[in-house]
Amino acid sequence: xxxxxxxxxxxxxxxxxxxxxxxxxxxxxxxxxxxxxxxxxxxxxxxxxxxxxxxxxxxxxxxxxxxxxxxxxxxxxxxxxxxxxxxxxxxxxxxxxxxxxxxxxxxxxxxxxxxxxxxxxxxxxxxxxxxxxxxxxxxxxxxxxxxxxxxxxxxxxxxxxxxxxxxxxxxxxxxxxxxxxxxxxxxxxxxxxxxxxxxxxxxxxxxxxxxxxxxxxxxxxxxxxxxxxxxxxxxx
Length: 236
Prior knowledge:
There is one protein chain. The chain is of the alpha+beta class. It is 18% helix and 31% strand. The protein has helices at residues 4-20, 26-32, 38-50, 71-76, and strands spanning 54-56, 64-66, 87-88, 110-120, 133-138, 147-153, 167-171, 181-186, 190-199, 202-206, 215-217, 222-232. A nine-stranded mixed beta sheet has the order 5-4-6-7-12-8-9-10-11, with no helix packed on it. The chain starts with a helix and ends with a strand.
């Protein structure tokens, strides 16, 4: 029998991976459960592991595998033939493995999305360029609204599973909630991919790499250009 907080954390991990393919950080877990510190998350994860709901993957920092879900939750999803484990990948000096996405070349299940150039996930680069080409994206990765893709340049979001050379799928929107990864346009000239936070009346753009500092701006200097909904990685 799980406590309410244990069940909330387990379902948050499962739903986030199913929804976006991007693993939640410990800070995101803490914020989602409204806990004061990450030590509470560590205790909940330990309890879930002891009860057989998750498993820590060896030799991978902050990596968890969801083994099963609460019976009440799985019953609500019937009919259901089985449960595919979700993997939470983290990184402490090691690049996490990417979510695996199959891209059908000519299939009704794919949608064409424009690639709008490169986005900085590290040191500043110039703002988003015009449409360079298009890629096919699985339709199940997308929700409502308009979408576009960007090629990632830099390593400041590595602990969120976003690496240099990845292609991120962005839903076009001017709004974001704290904790979401967004495309932010700074001073109408610098585009960057960062986690969106609020610091009083200011906006904080937070990296997912301890080598980079959080940048703080006045609200009139930052425009949200979209938020992350998926990621594609190619191997050569």
